[in-house]
Amino acid sequence: MRQRNPTGDILLHLLLTAGAVTILIPLYITIVTALKTPSESAASFFALPGSLYLDNFAAVLGKSHYFRFFLNSITITAVSLLGEILLVPLFSYAVVRNMDRFYFKVIFMLTVFGIFVPFQVVMLPTIKLFSRMGLLSFPGLILLYLTYTFKKGAFLFVGYLRSIPLELEESAYMDGCSVFKTYLFIIFPLLKPMIATMIVIDGLWIWNDFLLPLLVLNKNHLQWTLPLFQFQFKNQYTFDFNLAFASFLLSMAPMIILYIFMQKYIISGITKGAIKG
Amino acid sequence: MARRKTPAERLTYTTFTLPAVVLYGLFFMVPLLLGIYYSMTDWNGISQSYDFIDLENYRNLFSDNRVLNSFAFSLRYALYLVLIINVLALIIGLMLNANIRAKNLFRAIYFFPAIISLVVVGLVFDQIFYHAVPRIGDLFSIAFLQRNLMGNPEAVFWVVLFVSVWRECAVPTVLILAGLQTVPSELIEASILDGAGSFMQFRKIVFPFLIPVFSMNLVLTVKSGIMVFDIIKGMTGGGPGTATESIGILIYKKGFEEMRFGFASALSLSLFLLIAVISILQITVLRTKEAGQL
User: Is residue B268 a part of any domain in this protein?
Assistant: First the structure.
């Protein structure tokens, strides 16, 4: 055991608390301002609200299709993740078991190459192409999320699958299992921890993403996601910042609630994904 | 030993890859090739016809003040972001790893910014710097906070950087924390018995185990720094003037607002070149230095 140094100990906790306050102050300001009347905010920006004033939320909800946007965000995130779970492990399994063949080697190399190409490089032609194909909509956005999560996901899964011994599936083949059945009953269950990691990382990214919805959904008002709604709502609160903070809180709330309950899984998912990547 | 596969099995494997290959080919490779083609045209993004102008756009990149300005901004921004975040993440990671009270609560708070959408972070801080910060300045009579920092071309750089650090420190910090768990406690104990001071202990024993995490953090922050878009779009939109016009913001403006599609395509490919050069440099430099494995 190390001996404890009381002065250092106090200093350490003070520093950590100061950092925590810096992180939480914006959230504090958001919450109290959302609950105040404009005149209360004018009197003191930082004080707690005098009473529970909920009209700001009512105004934001009245001026926008908040619940619709919330539902849009959920649908887009869920469908993209579902597609990814169907697509990525299947692709990666086929690649890992056929690395000696030209076709599989080439498609895997092209996929890894794609990881190095930032979205902004393909942004302009992608949007032109989508506009011409009539895909500037919900389904189009999901296809793009599938494409981009596929690149990184395949890299992660191929790395993981390489560590799974062949013997497991050999015996399944001996018993007469087809390739697909082997995948479904032997391999896929082994991938559950990786899939959980993928859901956390990509779910967080898709839910919070702003640039793609801005490019793909901007003209379809009713298809907006929460971050896009938040950005567009900017024009409505130019003169009323209580309203602004109420809308911020509404946008952040679903994620904050999820974080409070799933904090452990979210942090470990992000950590694992980054370390394996 | 791997069995020989029957032709039917080979066909199954190929089928497994088809959905992904079609998706990736159609929505990633095709746009990439189209982008290379457009970058050699003078297309405005809308008109039916346009001319093939060879490498004209690329030549013009070097004489365009806004392009040079955006590269200077993004590189300077990335440099500070990398320095500040990697130092802060190390310090916070070490503090969180120490024998402290309420460890899990602190960890949850320090990770919190990572779950909030970048653009929402930008919008929240935009309002805070607009309304709250000048009041803090009034309260404590700090002159430079009383002015509108967002309207000052030099100050706004630091404001945006501060907001990015606030949001983007979280993931590198928990990665450092994870890296610290890989240091064997026997080594630490042995070094204490040998009389190593805290600094010596960190340098000789802890740090080598952190090198893989550091290299990862470096890659993460360099890329997010150079490609910064959301926070700036939420806070300043690139302004005042062109003070916060990053490469990402400029590509967006040139391509979708100023209708210089061909030129913007050339700009975006030059961004790719920059990222590729940095990635290759990082990989070669870090490979030679990597000591431990996670």
Answer: yes
Total structural domains in chain B?
A: 1
Nearest residue on chain B to A230, alpha-carbon basis: B120
Which residue of B21, B27, B272 is the best one to mutate when testing the A interface, meaning the one whose CB has the most A CBs within 10 A?
A: B27
Give chain B as a 3 state SS string: CCCCCCHHHHHHHHHHHHHHHHHHHHHHHHHHHHHHHHCCECCCCCCCCCCECCCHHHHHHCCCHHHHHHHHHHHHHHHHHHHHHHHHHHHHHHHHHCCCCCHHHHHHHHHHHHHCCHHHHHHHHHHHHHHHHHHHHHHHCCHHHHCCHHHCCCHHHHHHHHHHHHHHCHHHHHHHHHHHCCCCHHHHHHHHHCCCCHHHHHHHHHHHHHHHHHHHHHHHHHHHHHCCCHHHHHHCCCCCCCCCCCHHHHHHHHHHHCCCHHHHHHHHHHHHHHHHHHHHHHHHHHHHHCCCCC
Q: What is the pLDDT of residues B204-232, one digit of tens each?
A: 888 888 888 888 888 889 989 999 999 99
Q: Locate tokens 């959302």: which residue?
A: A34
User: What single string gives the DSSP state of each residue in A175-187?
Assistant: TT--HHHHIIIII
DSSP A46: S
Question: Considering only CB atoms, which chain A residues are within 8 Å of B223?
Answer: 118
Given B38, B131, B272, which is nearest A125 (Cβ)?
A: B38
CB contact under 8 A, A255 and B255: no
- CB–CB contacts below 8 A, A to B: 240
A60-103 residue pLDDT tens? 888 888 999 999 999 999 999 999 999 999 999 999 999 999 99
CB contact under 8 A, A274 and B171: yes
Indicate which CATH number applies to the domain containing B238: 1.10.3720.10
Q: Is residue B7 part of a domain?
A: no
Q: Flag if B175 and A274 touch (Cβ within 8 Å).
A: yes
Chain A residues with CB under 8 Å of B264 CB are 124
Domain that holds residue B188: 59-289
**To the nearest whole number, what is the mean pLDDT of chain A?**
89
Q: Which domains does chain A have, with CATH numbers?
A: 6-53 (no CATH), 56-276 (1.10.3720.10)
